[in-house]
Amino acid sequence: MAKQIIHTDDAPKAIGTYSQAVKVNNTVYMSGQIPLVPETMEMVEGDIKANIHQVFKNLSAVAKAAGGSLQDVAKLNIFLTDLSNFAAVNEVMAEYFVQPYPARAAIGVAQLPKGAQVEMDAILEIE
Q1: What are the residue ranges of helices labelled H in the chain?
Q2: Which of 3, 59, 66, 121 has the least CB density, counted as fewest CB within 10 Å?
Q3: Is 62 helix (H, G, I), strand (E, B) or coil?
Q4: For the whole model, what pTM was predicted?
């Protein structure tokens, strides 16, 4: 089983001891992404929808670097500091995914890195 580390400058650099993603055979395990703008490593400005869009842009960049796209996501985990933002997640997610949608979990958490309101990680299956 060959393990390949995935990295792209089009997504935020890791801010800890982890890789943006790891590919094992056809499966890609993507680390959590918060709404950091890759060029500045600062949080995106704007409301929760702007934050969610930035997270999906970051995930998309890592998926592309791994040879896939968001359409290859089999499982998506969403971490929210305020579960009342769940409807906004659904609204924005509909702009990035088409049916059949990936399996998904939304988890309420007390706190996220850098004061983020949302973080997402994903598992892709690339053919």
Answers
A1: 48-65, 86-93
A2: 3
A3: helix
A4: 0.96
Report the topology of domain 3-125: 60s Ribosomal Protein L30; Chain: A; (3.30.1330)
Write out the two tokens for 76.
């998506």
* Backbone dihedral angles phi then psi of residue 15, each to the nearest 5 degrees: -105, 25
Residues linked to residue 76 through DSSP beta bridges, in sequence order: 104, 122
Burial classification of residue 37, based on how many CB atoms lie within 10 Å of its CB (0-12 exposed, 13-18 middle, 19 or more buried): middle
Task: Write down the domain spans for the chain.
Answer: 3-125
Q: Kindly give, in sequence order, each residue whose CB lies less than 8 Å from that of residue 76, ignoring residues fewer than 6 positions away.
A: 102, 103, 104, 105, 120, 121, 122
Region of residue 99 (left: phi > 0; alpha: psi -120 to 50; beta: else): beta
